User: Fold these one by one.
Assistant:
Number 1:
Amino acid sequence: MDNTRLTRKMLGALGENYAREHLSSKGYRIQAQNWRCRSGEIDLVAVEGELLVFVEVRTRSGSARFGTPQESVNLLKQRQVRETAQYYAHRNQLLHKQQRFDVISVLTEKDGGLRTIEHVCNAF
């Protein structure tokens, strides 16, 4: 990227794209990105084998000295993701599928370059 400072929205979108590439490289089939309904948003919905995986992506630039991105997924956020996931599964007739909730933590350089990516399966 160039020398312009990344906005929070740009950083989030960049992190989601890194997460999407990571999942795809591991054989996950991406079903949706930024899926929204009244109860909230799910960053990524993927399928791994027969498992429906809902992924919360958290991105930070710089260092993790103020905590890791995944530490910011609090109980309120977990509840919101679960509710939204249930609606997604219902709407897409996928209630029969086993579900898992993952968190992908992305740390970038100040310019947006990927520093680290950590995938926590079954995070909540």
Number 2:
Amino acid sequence: MRTKKSPSLDLSRIQIEILEQSENTLIIRWVEPGRCHYGEQRWRRRSANSSGTCVVSRRAIRRGDAVFRPAERPAPANASAMISVEAFCSVDE
């Protein structure tokens, strides 16, 4: 059985615009030239199931941290992306 591994995100190329926000949901415009574009993508708050990097702050995310992740099914091309809830909240303050 083969598993599909998603390509790593090139954070320097990603353009993100927060269109709407609530405590548990973000609506994001995501542009990653040459790879994917989502005009209105829903992200939901959850716990990180792996370590990674916040696409907004570029800070490290540890497994278990509160993050926003794409909520669509089937999994979108940017399914591995995460936004740290702490980083996002610090942008608003």
Number 3:
Amino acid sequence: MQEHDTEAQEPFHKRTIRSFVVRGGRMTEGQQKNYEANWAIYGLNLADGRIDYTTVFGRESDVIIEVGFGMGSSLAEMAKNAPEKDFIGIEVHPPGVAKLMMLAKEQGITNLRVYCDDAIEVMANCLPQNVASAFQLFFPDPWHKKKHNKRRIVQPLFAEQVANVLRDGGHFHMATDWQPYAEHMMEVMEEQVLYENAAGKGLYHPRPEWRPLTKFEQRGERLGHGVWDLIYTKK
């Protein structure tokens, strides 16, 4: 993936503190060819600006946004299991984007599109406002060290930005296997006037059946690690 020229992309939103580090971004020649071929089908470009979901998917539907889908197996499974809904994934890790597109093509999934860019810029410049029915953030980097806590993506400003793309009654669904981060998420979200906790004030939500268990999560369960789901509804 080429670096973006921030000067050329004004007035795109500039971000000073990133919540992610792009690791292992190199792809083999074969992966790159598959990426480019599948991108023509599934890819959405930051530079194209604001999109219209009806135009992108060719229909009116509930649209679910997921940020940080990793290698994409969970998102592909959700899209395959809910063909009546449409999904947009946002991920900065090119091999993960390539894998998701490959899975979608192999499984004949048509209700899925993807950005390979920073979610903050995509949300600010590309996604329609007040339209999406759900926004998903599953197992984001918890940035364990206290000095790095400011890099956690779940912050008051981010919660407001998510609210901007959600319709009234839409859901912001988070999940983490790191209890201190779950507590941080709860603290941030309980202060937001734009949301209401779907499980009740100060309560975590049971894992919905439709959220697939990732291999990472299954391994954690075997080791006795907890997982915390939080679902907040936009008022």
Number 4:
Amino acid sequence: MPVMEEALNTGQRPIRSFVLRQGRITAAQRRVIQDALPALQIPTGEPWQDPWNGQRNITLEIGFGNGEHLAALAAANPDQSFIGAEVHTPGVGSLLLQMEKAGIDNIRIVHDDVAAWMKTLPDALFARIIIQFPDPWPKTRQQKRRLIQTEFANTLQRLLKTGGELQLATDWADYAEQMLTVLNQTQGLINTDSGNSFSERPANRIPTRFERRGEKLGHSVYDLVYRRTS
């Protein structure tokens, strides 16, 4: 579910690390997107302005899917602030409906591919960054499209506050190994697992229907947790 693209050094068009599957938008989603999104959307083409005026820790979730995890996390932590990034319009509508139903007001939304936006953000902005179940691109020829690559890992490190946490999860074993290799080699990040391996699921990470369905099918989930040291 990532919303990122990685530019090639050859001057060719960027390689997208997601497939834009818009799907069907319900009438309720269309209504809430029209009515609520303008006030909650973070414009990616403008200089960064903190919606909370620097008064709160901010968690960024990249590729929030249908918003189930992000809405639950924000509802459980009303004293914290959250930004969710997602390109898929039905997912944005789903999150907005959940926010409306639960009275959640501590989420802002990036409804865009966040690659260019992230490059413009100031250092040490986020207390936590979450990436769950990004597109695995399982075929060998596709793996250059995977989100977790060296350049992107360096961006994640830069955007975390010192002591801030990076949380990732995937149910693809070979992608989990790639993440582990890339992130263990990223300067300024330390694996919170004492063996530099996979972690227990973080207490704040709420299993979604997507994850529960995968577990019923016998899929293992690999969690990785890193902290910015410098």
